[in-house]
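Following up on my earlier message about zinc ion. Here are the inputs again, as you asked, copied directly from the submission form:
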Amino acid sequence: MINLAVLLKIKSRRLTHQNSRARRSNAIVILLHYADGGNLEITMAIPVNIVTGFLGVGKTTSIINLVKQKSQKNQTAERWAVLINEFGTVGIDAAILQSQVPDQQLAIKEVPGGCLCCTAGLPFQIGLNQLISKQRPDRLIIEPTGLGHLSEIIKTLQAEHYQDVLQLQSVICLVDPVALSDARYIEHEVFQDQLQQADVVLANKIDQSSAKDIEIFEQLIERLQPAISAKVEQGKIEAEWLNLPHKAHLTPAHGHQHADHQTPALSGASLQGDEDWRRFESKGQGYVSCGWIVVDAAIFDEIQLLGWVSGQQVERIKGVVRTNQGWRIINVRDGIASMTSIDEAADSRLEMIHSDVFDIEIAEQSFLQAIVSLDK
Ligand SMILES: [Zn+2]
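Thanks, got it. Here's what our run produced:
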């Protein structure tokens, strides 16, 4: 960490002389001081946003929308970095983002394998440092897993060694109004923490919410009093909300339970050697996850896959899969399945998350049976 501070100092000095692009952009000048030779040195902190919300609320879709907005507004010179953290070991969201946004100015870093503050703590710091020193983005967006400990992640970002380097701006929390009547969500300390820390609270998927759901959301906003609240579809975040400062909140005194079963992964999961598929399992924060990566040569029958997906009694399924009808993004939450077509991906990967044990062997058998050919 000491080395990091030195490295970043050197990096930012070099930037002062060479990188006028960064100065024109939205990067924030936070320090003006005289360096050894009496030169005026400008140190710029990278604005950071966190997009949070419970499992399956639409965080990745929101980020895709944001990046598309940036590209459309002719701000292609602005370089963004997105750090995506997932509960499971198989990285799905980064693959989705990559396939949906062909932005040359976007750096994507994946940190799978649990919460950024505990099990994936070390990979998070390494990934973050790599993004800062190698990419020097004009903005960094972090998507923690829906089961991450937000207060602790914020503490990491505001630690002393990042103070001249990162500036935390708005924390955006997406809420599914339908879930507000479900005790599993509202009583979960991870969910409460997300709401407490949020500067922007958005009711997402309002097209799927009832008047009663919206009313409960409005009562929640009344209580929380965030700087901004809105009701949106497709996780639509307005770009100007990103520039709000993050308001400090008190961290709950009882702390939180760290996951203790998960193994940290230093990079995204992948297949080894010439294997055709591999299973990955993890658990923590009261949830179990199981995922698979399948070689891109394997083609799934779309109808059989959809049947399989619909038959699984788990809270969340997401994936990127090659089917006989083309590549598909698969999303299931609370029994509602959706498929979106994409151009292609590096391999097929799918993950299931559930708050109770489920029969992984049986699920796996029928999942793999949906492969109709191995086009090698
Ligand atoms: Zn944690």
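One observation from looking it over: Residues 309 and 337 are 7 Å apart (CA to CA). Hope that helps, and feel free to reply on this thread.
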